[in-house]
Amino acid sequence: MRIRLCKARLALGLTQSEVARRAGLTRASYTNIERGHKNPSVVTALHIAQVLNRSVEELFADEPPPAGLQKVGERRGYSS
Question: Half-sphere exposure of residue 35, counting CA atoms within 13 Å on the CB side?
Fold first, then answer.
């Protein structure tokens, strides 16, 4: 998420402060969202997406897990 937010912001030539102001947030709140330290509410995600001219899905959809990462109980050779 954080890389997508940062790339979208930089592509528009906006600072974190500008995005925050346009989205109705404090700079600190936006910075925490962009860094992945805080998850935005649905309304906040919509406001950020509008400012960055992107869809909420483009900016905030879950990223696939890294290659080789397995869920608990999905070890190779494991059978139930």
Answer: 9
- For 44-66, the pLDDT digits (tens) are 999 999 999 999 999 988 766 55
Using CA atoms, how far apart are residues 4 and 10, in angstroms rounded to an integer?
10
Give the number of other CB atoms < 10 A from CB of residue 13.
Answer: 7
Q: Token pair for residue 12? A: 């528009």
Give per-residue pLDDT as tens, 61-75: 876 655 665 555 555
Predicted confidence band of residue 76 (pLDDT cuts 50, 70, 90): low
Phi-psi region of 69 (alpha: psi -120 to 50; beta: other; left: phi over 0): beta
Domains present along the chain, CATH in parentheses: 2-60 (1.10.260.40)
